[in-house]
Amino acid sequence: MFKAIILAAGKSTRMNSILPKVLHRINDKTLVQYVLDSVKMCDTDKIFVVVSNDSKNVREAIKMDVIFVEQKEQLGTGHAVMQVEKYIEDTDDIVVLCGDTPLITSETINNIKEIHTKDNNAATILTTILDNPMSYGRIIRDNEKNIIGIVEEKDANDNQKDIKEINSGIYFFKGKYLKEALKKIESKNNSNEYYLTDTIKNITNAGHSVGSYTTKNYTEILGVNTQDELDKARKVLNETHK
User: Fold this and answer.
1) Residues in the chain with pLDDT values less than 50
2) What's the pLDDT score for residue 188?
3) Quick one: pLDDT at residue 13?
4) What is the pLDDT of residue 134?
5) 211 backbone dihedrals φ, ψ, rounded to 5°
6) Of 7, 12, 40, 38, the residue nearest 24 (C-alpha)
7) Cα 137–94–73 angle (5° rounding)?
8) What pLDDT score does 241 carry?
9) Do 153 and 144 meet the contact criterion of CB atoms below 8 Å apart?
């Protein structure tokens, strides 16, 4: 089956708002609804939305047939996906997206899925190239250009910070390899969190293939964490829908 996991448990700390981050609006829709609408157009069989333990308003705002999964503690993106593990079968294809990336399109999701399936990858990452990578995680490749991991900006050394190819936070996984990799991730990092990015290193270390699809339209992967970023996403969306 083709299943989607939407991470929607994040708080609005940097938005300076009591409203959950994914419920901020661009025009007539919430951020998470934009993501859900794109995912729904990709013929997903089931959609899981990971929410916090104080998520009544998020649940009420989503008017779609989804399965809500509670993340009682905010221990990172890897921990969030762990909450859905019991619903994942070995033969499933899984797409993981963030609920605060409203500009992602169904076309790009389908493009990643096509490469993921054609190349028979254990995992496939959506990446893009940025002249100023800012706070995004960097894609680490070996001398043969194979992906061997992702390093978060706060954990990166100076050489890694110079890398221009960044992680979008959107992934495809084969269910079997995702579950195996989740069991091996640890919280030994500067945030003391379980990073979903560590599953990539675990998958490659186990000898399985990790591929990528690089979008030239970097705006698709813009996350909304601040009011300024919300304004930027609104401008991009309004420009593309003129």
Assistant:
1) none
2) 86
3) 81
4) 84
5) -110, -175
6) 12
7) 65
8) 67
9) no
Distance, in Å, from the CA atom of 111 to the CA atom of 105, rounded to the nearest integer, reads 10
For residues 47 and 64, is the Cβ–Cβ distance under 8 A?
yes
Task: Give the C-alpha separation, 59 to 2, whole Å.
Answer: 22
Query: Is position 14 annotated as part of the catalytic site?
Result: yes
Query: How distant is the alpha carbon of residue 137 from its chain centre?
Result: 12
Question: Taking the complete model, does pTM exceed 0.90, yes or no?
Answer: yes
- For the chain, the domains span 2-240
**Catalytic residue (one of 14, 25, 141, 234):** 14
Residues 6+ apart with CB under 8 A from 168: 101, 125, 126, 127, 128, 215, 220, 221
Q: Cβ(175)–Cβ(92) under 8 Å? A: yes
- Token pair in block for residue 42: 């990709």
- The tokens describing 184, both together, are 């091996």
- Identify the CATH class of 2-240: alpha beta
Structure tokens at 12: 């609005």
Cβ atoms of residues 205 and 230 within 8 Å: no
Q: What is the pLDDT of residue 125?
A: 98
Total count of residues recorded for the chain: 242
